[in-house]
Amino acid sequence: VQMWVFATALVVGMMVHKPMDDILAIQGLLYFLPTYLVGMLAAQHREAIFRICQGKEPWLLAGVFGLAALESVQRTGTSFGNYHGAPFDIGPFDLLMPQKILLCLFFLLALHRWEDRPLPFVGFLAKYSLAIFFLHPLVLWAADLLELRWMHRPAWLAYPFVVLLLLLVSSGVAAGLKRMLGSRSRMLIGS
């Protein structure tokens, strides 16, 4: 039953798309519901996922890159990034949703494999993950103000660099705010 609910939510989320200007709460709930559900299912069935998916990390990555290629073909000549749409404006399937889910499963398996080793960078990202989530749109917005348009261009070679730069700047801002505000930073950035 849980998998049917998740599969249905995934199809609905892929068709509904992200709300325009991220303001319609019900549409946002429908769009993000599969992400929440996969997180809950992964926590609930963690050991089964490890058992079933062990050694399949290359296939998960192949799925991620395959969906990225399909997405680039589907979106040729249009915008890039997450689909945004009006509530009942059902357009092409948002392939970023299943791509992100496969990427999360990949990292879940990879990090499980190395969980007995100290990984300071992963700990740092985990500590500031909520802040990074809230700050990264502001970093992209600042890049627009500074006319760093290259950060928004879909380029296969630039994408990993942009993601790393976005992570570093967002987490650096989060760490700086945490240092300046102390425990009060939780009210501003969630960390």
Mean pLDDT across every amino acid position: 83
Question: What is the H/E order?
Answer: HEHHHEHHHHH
Distance between the termini: 35 Å
Strand order of the largest sheet: 1-2
- The helix/strand class is mainly alpha
Question: Major beta sheet, specifics?
Answer: 2 strands, parallel
Helical content (DSSP H or I, runs of 4+) = 55-70%
Account of the protein in words:
With 191 residues, this protein is mainly alpha-helical. Helix content is 70%, strand content 2%. The protein has helices at 2-16, 25-44, 46-53, 57-74, 96-113, 120-127, 129-145, 158-181, 185-189; strands at residues 18-19, 84-85. The mean pLDDT is 83.
SSE map:
Elements (H helix, E strand, L loop, with lengths): L1 H15 L1 E2 L5 H20 L1 H8 L3 H18 L9 E2 L10 H18 L6 H8 L1 H17 L12 H24 L3 H5 L2
Helix pairs in contact: 1-2, 4-5, 7-8
List the defining traits of the structure above.
single chain; 191 residues; mainly alpha; 70% helix
Concise description?
The protein is mostly helical and 191 residues long.
